[in-house]
Design brief:
It contains 10 helices and 20 strands. It is of the alpha/beta class and about 425 residues long. Strands 1, 2, 3, 4, 5, 6, 18, 19 and 20 form a 9-stranded mixed beta sheet that branches. An 8-stranded parallel beta sheet has the order 7-8-9-10-11-12-13-14. Helix 9 crosses helix 10. The chain starts with a strand and ends with a strand.
Length: about 425
């Protein structure tokens, strides 16, 4: 397969003009340009051609105005497919729908309610999908993101198990050989000597600090010191949500706002966490999001959906969620949100990565090749799957998105196969 694009987003927020990508046996084998010009920013979005397809005896060719790597989602609970949200990943629905939203790879989020039998079935299903994809038109599962069980503030999550012993914790981890990242609360770990955090680090799992509205500077610094012992950069789960900020008494959000620390003895040599933002313009206000974009490098920000319902569902749609219900409602500030039914507690989103991509360009005027960094390259790096996906590079899997001149998604290619097309 050959892909030709007037603008081809490469790596690090850069692009080449008149780019050509060759995909052979699901892998990118060459990248070239018929133009001598390249740039770090795409400034002219006004011209270009729509998608055309040329089919010959020798090779399949796809053309577009803009092409970029497939989006990588590292915090999503699925889109639907059954009446119980916790069981979404057992069904094909989410994997079949995600390509239409530009998501070619997913590190699937799981939680741990009081009855762990459901979690065990979902995890077993995901582990099978990591090893084998039943259809070329489905988004690939690259691993698991565990949101819990060592969490102190639930937010919209079901009951978890923060009191779990180290041995019980290890048994949970043993269930997930493909676990890439786990959310863990620093305050509860501080009280337990960071023993479970150390278990994650010893197993090569990225710790994501989060779901902790009461953690102090002391708690976070302690977690960062442990991470520094293992030379690991930790992550922060959905910055601002189920976490707190204080201008005098630093908490988790404070640590997510900076690219470097002040020259203070307690901060010397500590890693600066990467962050993720639920970028649906509902979880945090665009003004707040803009402040984050001004202060953090694109390569250290992952834009996530935290989706629990398909964006195609109608207002009023609801489903079960571990003994309660979630419902899709109108957001008072515009748009839509998902809440615990009968409350105003946000319990995830109904957004999609393609919507986030378009919002980054429209609301914040971010060039498309830079927006892609936060949807592909950064999340892949954070979850340590960037050797396979996250950028258009020789040797990586052939996951490419094709857009027309108005940045409408027209084709999603996964591993060198057309997984979705706007014309079909």
């Amino acid at each position: 397969m050959k892909i030709k694009a007037e603008i081809l987003a490469t790596k690090g927020g850069e692009y080449i003009r008149d780019g050509c990508v060759q995909i052979t046996d699901s892998t990118i084998t060459s990248i070239s340009s018929s133009s001598s010009s390249s740039s770090s920013h795409l400034s002219n979005h006004s011209s270009g051609q729509s998608n055309t397809i040329a089919s010959g005896d020798e090779e399949e060719v796809h053309e577009a105005y803009f092409a970029c790597p497939g989006f990588v989602e590292i915090h999503c609970h699925g889109l639907g497919g059954c009446d119980e949200m916790l069981e979404y990943w057992i069904h094909d629905y989410s994997f079949e729908k995600l390509p239409a939203y530009g998501t070619t790879s997913v590190v699937a989020s799981v939680t741990f309610p009081a009855d762990l039998s459901t979690s065990a079935r979902v995890i077993a299903s995901l582990e099978r999908r990591v090893k084998h994809t039943s259809s070329k038109k489905q988004t690939r599962v690259m691993g698991i993101h565990a949101e819990g069980p060592i969490i102190v503030d639930l937010g919209g999550l079901p009951h978890l198990h923060p009191e779990m012993s180290v041995e019980e914790f290890k048994k949970i981890l043993d269930m997930m050989p493909s676990l890439k990242i786990m959310t863990i609360s620093p305050s509860i770990e501080h009280d337990n000597g960071y023993t479970r955090l150390r278990v994650l680090l010893e197993r090569g799992i990225t710790p994501a600090l989060g779901h902790d509205k009461t953690c102090s500077e002391l708690h976070v610094l302690g977690a960062l010191r442990v991470c520094s012992e293992y030379k690991v950069v930790p992550h922060i789960t959905h910055l601002f949500n189920v976490s707190s900020f204080n201008h005098r008494l630093p908490s988790l959000v404070n640590f997510g706002l900076v690219e470097s620390y002040p020259h203070l003895p307690d901060y010397a040599g500590l890693p600066v966490p990467t962050i993720e933002i639920v970028a649906d313009m509902v979880h945090i206000h665009p003004l707040t999001f803009g402040a984050v974009l001004a202060g953090r490098k694109r390569e250290n920000i992952a834009c996530i959906t935290d989706a629990v319902l398909d964006s195609a569902f109608h207002v009023g749609y609801s489903c079960k969620y571990s003994g309660t219900e979630i419902e899709l409602v109108e957001h008072e500030g515009g748009g839509r949100k998902v809440v615990l039914k009968g409350t105003n507690t946000i319990a995830g989103s109904c957004s999609a990565q393609i919507q986030i991509f378009q919002s980054l360009m429209k609301v914040f005027k971010i060039p498309p090749e830079q927006a892609v960094t936060m949807l592909s390259e950064a999340p892949a790096k954070i979850t340590k799957i960037d050797d396979v996906v996250g950028a258009i590079e020789v040797g990586k899997r052939g996951d490419v998105l094709l857009f027309d001149k108005d940045f409408n998604l027209i084709k999603t290619i996964i591993a060198g196969h057309v997984a979705w097309s706007s014309s079909s």
